[in-house]
Every structure is written in C-alpha cells, then in structure tokens.
Design goal:
Blueprint (H helix, E strand, L loop, with lengths): L3 H17 L6 E2 H11 L3 H6 L9 H15 L2 E4 L2 E4 L1 H9 L3 H17 L1 H12 L6 E3 H8 L3 H11 L7 E2 L13 H13 L20 E2 L1 H9 L15 E4 L13 H5 L1 E5 L12 H11 L5 H17 L5 E6 L2 E7 L4 E2 L8 E8 L6 E2 H4 L4 H4 L7 E3 L4 H4 L25 H6 L6 H12 L2 E6 L5 H12 L7 E5 L6 H4 L1 E6 L9 H11 L4 E6 L1 H11 L5 E6 L6 H5 L2 H4 L25 E8 L10 H5 L2 E4 L10 H8 L5 H15 L25 H17 L7 H5 L1 H8 L8
Helix pairs in contact: 1-2, 1-6, 4-6, 4-9, 4-22, 7-8, 8-9, 13-14, 28-31
Length: 729
Amino acid sequence: MPTAFEISARAVRQAATVLADHLQDGLPFRELRPLIHAADPTLAQDWQALGAAVTTDIDRNLSFTATTLTKAGWLTRANRTWRLTGLGVEALHAYPEPGTFFSEAGTRYAHWRAGRLYFDAAAKLLSELPDDRWVSIEDLAAEYEIDPEALAACLQGTRPEGWHLALSPDGEAGFGTTLLATEIGAWRTLLERDELYDEAASSIDTVRALPGKRLTAEEITALVLGEEPGQDSIPQRPRRVWIIRGTDAGGASLIRSHWRDEGVVTLSADRLPALAQGAGPQRVRKAVDDADSGATAAQRDRRADELHTFLSRIQEGDIVVCTDGPKAYLGVVRGPAVYTDPLEDAAHFARSVAWRNLDAPLDFVRDLPAELTGRVADADARIVDISEFASRLEPLVGPEPERAAPPPDITAEIPDATGELADGLFLGNASWLQESVELLRGKPQLIFHGPPGTGKTYTALALARHLTGGSPNNVRLVQFHPAYTYEDFFEGFRPRLPKKKASDGPAEKRERDADTSTGLVFDLVQGPLRRLADAAEERPAEVFVLVIDEINRGNLAKVFGEMYFLLEYRKEFVHLLYGSDEGRGFRLPPNLYIIGTMNTVDRTVALMDAAMRRRFSFMELHPDVPPLTGLLSRWLTVNQHPQDAALLLDELNRRIAEGPANDRDFRVGHSYLMQSMAHSSPQAMDLIWRSQVIPLLTEYHWGDGTDIEETYGLAGIREHLGLQSGGGA
C-alpha cells in the first residue's frame, strides 16, 4: 500500500506534467484537477485507502503541497492560474521519478522555511525600491545572507510585488536560468512599464535592464537602514575566525608543508567542478551530490557545508587558526577562493593566507582560550567557526603578534554563607552552610540527604537563592521520578499539534497546512538543564543553580546521558545526542552549580552507582546531628510558641531509635511540626500526628508486628512527658 508521501508525490508531479502541456496560458485549478485524475485514475482511491491517517481529500492536499513547488520556484499561482516556470520544466526532466521530484522540491522548501524571515525581508525590500531602479540578486541575497539562487527561484514562484526588479549583476532577467517565452515576455513588459528596459542590450530571448539604474550594494544597505549611502554608521561585516584543518596523504598536517610553503589554506576539490567565489549553498550541494553520489547524506551535507563556507562565508581579513597537535598557527586571509588546475596538482580550492607565527607556534592549551578545546573536539570537521573568540585572538595576529596569553576567562564567584542566611533557616550558625559552599567551590555538585521532613529541599532552594544573589531567573527547580528521561531533563523531540491562528491569511494558512497536513509536528525542545546551561554560558560572571529534588528517584545514567561525563569534567566538551551543538561541542559551564536532595529512608541512596556518587559531594541533614539539633526549639521560640512540639518530636525520635527497626534514618524531621496549621488550634497537633506522622511510621514498620498507636500515639507520648492535651502544642 503506498504511503501518504508517495501519493502526494504522484499528485504533485502529475500536476507538473499536465502543466508542461499548457506552458502558454497555464490552467486554473478547477481545470487542472480533472486532468490529473484522468492521467492517474487510482490517485483518489489510494488516498482514501489511507483512512484516518489523512484529514483532507487528495485535491485539497495537492493544493496545500503545491506550496512546496512555489517556494522552490517551479510553479507560480497568480490570479488563480497555475503555471509551470522554466525551473519547473527543468526539474521535470531532471527528476523523472515522483518521489525524487517531490523530495527535491521539499529540500528547497525546507531551505526557504529555515530562512523565511530573510526571504520575506528581501521580497519586501523589492516592493520599496525607488522608482526606475533595480538590484542585483546577488547583492540583495548578500544583504540578508541567503543563497542568491534560492532567492531568485523563490521570487520566480511567489511573484511578490517588484519581483522583476531582482536581476543578474549585468541586468539580465532570470539569473542564469532558462526562461520560458511567457516569462521573457512578462519580464520585458514589466521593465518597459517601469522605464528600465534596455532595448539595445536585449534580444528576442534575452531581456536586460538599463545598467545605470542598478542600486549598488552600499545603496541597498543604506535603504535597509534608512540612511544615506556613505554614512559611517552603515555597519561592516564583523571579522570572523575559522579553525581550518587539512592533512596530506600520509595524515600529516598541511601546515608542515604546502600551507606553510605557499602561504595558503586549501580544501579538496576532488571530482568537483570549478565553482566560483560566492557560490550559493544550493549550487554547492548539487555539485557535491553529483561528485559524491556514493556517500551518505550526512557525509554530503558536511562536505557541502564546508565547501560553501570556504567559497562564500570566509572573506578577506578573517583570521584562520590551524592546529598541528598541541601547536596552533594563526594567519589572516588575503585573497579569494581560487580553483587549481587539476592537470598541475590534485584539484583543490585555495585561499592566500598571511601566516603570523610560523616560527613560534602558540601552545593550544596555554596560550588560547580554554573553551577552544571544545571547538576542535570533532576530528572530522575541517572548518569550524569560532568567531566568538575574535576579540581575544585579534591581538595575536597584528603586525607584531603579542606573545602574551589572552586575558583570563571571566569567572563567577559564589559568596560565603552568612549569619543572616543561617538565621533564616534556624540553623543556629553558618558553619554547616559554609561547609556546603566550600564543597561547591571544589566540586560544583552537592547533595543534601536525610530522612523525610528535615527541610532538604527548603534548605537547597534557600542556599541557591543566596548563591545567585536572589535572582529568580538564575535558579531552577526540577524533581526526578522513575519516568523522568534525558529528553525531559536536557533536550529531546516532542510532538505538538499544528498551531492554528485566526489571523492567518489564505497564503499563511495554505503554507501552514502544507507543512502539517500529515499530523503531528516534532520540535527539538530544550529541557531545564540545557536552558540553564545556555544562560550560564552567555553570562559567565553570574552564578546559576539547578536544584534537583528527589535526585535518587530517577535513573541517573539514563537521565544525565552524556552530561554524566561533563559533571566531572567541566572543561571538556561533548557532542550532543540530537546534534543541537551543530558540531561545536557542548559543556556544562563552570558557573552552573547543581544541588540535589535525597531521601535516605527508601534506601535508594545505596543504589546510586559509584561513578555518580564520585561526581557529587554529600551533606547530611539529620534530626540527631547539627545543624538540625535544636532547630525546632529555636523556631518555636522565635514564633512565640510553647516548646511542647520540640519535646514531642524528641521523644518520638527516641522511641523510633529504640524500636524494632533500630534505624537512625527512620527518625522524623522537624518540618512536620513547623506547619502553620500545627499551631492554629488545640486540636491541630492531633490532626497532624494522626494524618501525617502515624501513616509514615506505619509504612516504616510494615510487617514487623509493632503496635504503632501504642508505641507512637500522641496521647501516650503526651502522658509520658506530662504534657496536657492541646496545651499549646
């Protein structure tokens, strides 16, 4: 049985095939639809057989999915009439199989969607051009850092206002693509209307605009910024920094030989055509697909991305860093990308580089920022963007490079515990809290453990707020449980229903439905640890604290995943499970601290493996030892309550210690008797004891024959202590 994708692909390609027979006038959809079904009689039947898997009929689905072809530039739908473009005719010949045809259109649609804001901004700018002026599609695409071929194709399909004013640099319509006669005629008519048509330079099959009417790149930027050309305020592209690596046939770094001798960096052009400087990502990807047809999609993606970066993103004046083991060589790009003659040497693209320290390489660990180690962790990556370090590397590539190490990393310091914090927690003094702070300074993970009711979570949150200076955005609380996963904690794909907006116009609704007609949408969603870690990385001078309640109730190895390693090695980088680090590596920043709480009564602390225990320090909160001894009494004094509750708790814990279980972790914490309701009326303590304390002790002594009421009943303990019922307790 065919899938929804296969049926959609058949419908879309059949529509294009029918339209290829009506290139002159196109067809309204109401006339196109029966011709499609006549050519593929089982289309509707196969679609209906999918049952509940689809929510629309095949014709409506086709109307939605045709948006994919429009954004790819293969189809235009002006005035309710569908027309195939010249690009669409080429695609019909290039991709004869429906699935491949539809997939290729989908790839182009995905590229448009990823940069939708920039494509839309470029289209809007065309509608705002001054009268009798046109722009180069390359200049327009460069302004918004998008692929000129993809922009030209999208304009061909969508036909926004002013679409005809985006031309090749020499003013020719079509940006080098084959145009249909109808397209040539439309372009000629529109340029004549706008008094831009260059009749002398045009012909029957070529349309050009007057060269003197072209806006320069500077004028485009000024138009975007609302300023006059030549103003100093127009920003220049910031300097970028790139790690570039290459090896010879023997595996030795090319900085030892060719790159050093020739003053260049190179990238292999094996089986590739002579692509030009500034080639767009789609043109590069097609060249790579043709050259490496036997490679995996991931391998082709990587090569295409690196090749596009080398040809188009790297520019003169950028800094390059080349590594050879622990040595680091720095240089400045001095020329465009040049394709070598494969008859003279192995085919490659080369860029001229002025090396700065060939005779005195830097030590990668000692002389460069520590975070750079994560950027070179991926041994397969030949080009890595590390532009965030530009300000720290620029002093090293001046006319006389500085040999001094870059400025030290910004570090966040956690404050000492204070008496005020200790008083707020009724701990008597700050010594226990200060020990916790010292442990966090030595190892940024700490666990508070002890019996129930000892205030572990309350204390952890109070300490976290103190360490972060009271900033609510720098503290986050999560609670582990048996169903908690890595996807909940760090990041994972999560389904969602398509969003429906009442404000969507017809075009937006069609585009949304085309994207979501198959049902659920899956998004890569960040969990609390990823969000807090990203915030900490962006603000290294601030302290961030993640509090994990009931940390031992989760499957820690499963929940932490690769974070398991990073807990111990904070300076190291790892590559993330779902690839959201984009090959750059991820670390747990040093200014992110983790405080966990652990209930020791259920014995799961014994099940925490040694590797995880090694990554945390442990501080006990127990009724029998400081800082909790006397805490309830201090609280009662401050709140002007009688000391009866403290006496009752001490006697209860003494009886628990002498009971059959003989286990110190079965003692009851002070939190049960610090509730406001416990002191609200003479009967309140009886209610707390009966509904919270007795059920807890019943669970402790399950099956050992202990008479819970006789041993731990409130009336018996009061009688033993000589306290009156309801006597303020």
